[in-house]
Amino acid sequence: MRKKIAAGNWKMNKTYDDAMGLATTIGNAKVPEDVTVILGVPYIYLKEINEITKENRGVYVSAQNVHQEESGAYTGEISAPMLKSIGIPYVIIGHSERREYNCETPEVLKKKVRIALDNNLDVIFCCGESLEVRKKNEHEIYVKNQIEKSIAGLSSEDMKKLTIAYEPIWAIGTGETATPAQAQAMHKAIRDYLKELFGEKIADETAILYGGSVKPSNAVEIFGQVDVDGGLVGGASMDPDSFLKIIHSF
Ligand code: PGA
Q: pTM for the full model?
């Protein structure tokens, strides 16, 4: 049985009081027993929100990024050992915004995945194609390539701590969602590729999330696809009513 996951990605949003309010609402909410809820929050709130969510079985906190080196002269960066030292369970790696605005290459992402796993963090690894790639009908090969370059060499043990988030860039923050059929087709392609890389058991056990304008009105249908195991949700995760509806959409 694969995990069902509703993950929120707050990105660079919420000042302190709003962040604590939202975390407290979700942290106190009743979550279905078979659903894992993850809140991807800004670094500076991680420790405090981790304390809040720890009270609730099934709700966890995640960093939105991590540096690829263990320590050193990297002003402004946060390392995997630092996240580990304050008990953070998850980290999002390879979000398309970081690939684009922070020039994160597949090679750098590979290092980030490695150091996160070495520090016992669970990884949500993001992949997804641009509209241009989709229009050329090259989306499957593009996403496979992202996976190949950053996670292909992982061990079975490593893969137990990795979740994939497929997020077509053209659907992120645009209000335009992939149709359930488009999501399913890509998730199936990803799972088939995982089978090639890691074998059937790992492929069957790895959760693959969909991201890109998930909201209460489309979550049930998207999460209902056989190879979709939940969502990575941006905008709608910052409204408690919307996110709670999404959490209950499995
Ligand atoms: P969105 O963002 O739900 O606002 O489209 C998703 C994401 O970037 O993870």
A: 0.97
